[in-house]
Amino acid sequence: MECYHTVYTEGTGEIVEKKSRFIAEVFPVSNEEEAFAHLEEIRKKHWDARHHCFAYVIGDRHELARFSDDGEPGGTAGKPMLDVLMGKPILEVLRGKKLTDVFVVVTRYFGGTLLGTGGLVRAYTSAAAEALAHTVIITKIHGFKLKIITDYTGLGKIQYILGQRGLSVLDTVYTDKVELTVLVPDDEEGFLMKELMEGTNGQAMTEKTEQCWFAETEEGIKIFEQ
Asked: What are residue 184's phi and psi, to 5 degrees?
């Protein structure tokens, strides 16, 4: 199955370490321009902060990954945050999932006490994880919309097949025939077509329409643009 994990909503989190405040914000993004636009907003909002460290991953195959320590000692901020997004630390919020199309920025207000390399890594990692814990993580699946046209005698069997495979019916139109629009993951295509053919004795007509990414959310199935 072609799929990837990403964030569906924005999230924020904050930790305090030896009087230094680490304020993390997570955003869903689809390109670098969106990421840097969010960064600019954060810099304006927290104009008096000492550091705005960030990391992002973009692309359904994690093609683009970047980070910045923004003045912190090298390897203590941006890279640990990128590791969080890539699922490397053992964090309950991710459970080893790699995220993509996501941008995280952690703003630090210095509290007067140096934290050391290990302390900074833990602080930035924890802040990023805290923000992710306050967002919604979804799995986007690649598939297509399938139009199925059947007579009324074949409807029950088709509904049974779709239910057994856990496929979502987006729309049903009743005329002299029944036309269903179904969301199908790519890897379900062969099995579904075979079952529909056998279950209706070849009487159901099928037509693949548009390809899409989709995900299950609290509001139901959400379809995303290609």
From this structure: -125, 120
Residues 44/85, Cβ–Cβ less than 8 Å: no
209: enclosing H helix or E strand = strand 205-217
Q: For residues 93-106, b (16+ Cβ closer than 10 Å) or e, as one string?
A: bbeeeebbbbbbbb
Q: pTM above the 0.85 mark?
A: yes
For residue 55, give the H/E element and its range. strand 51-58
In the block, residue with structure tokens 């869903």:
28
Compute the Cα dihedral for 157, 213, 13, 73 and give only its sign: positive
Structure tokens belonging to residue 183:
């969301």
Q: Given pLDDT bands bounded at 50, 70 and 90, which one contains residue 13?
A: very high
Cα(86)–Cα(206) distance, rounded to whole angstroms?
39
Q: Is the dihedral of CA 206, 212, 216, 217 positive or negative?
A: negative
- The residue type at 70: D
Query: Mean pLDDT over residues 66-84, rounded?
Result: 94
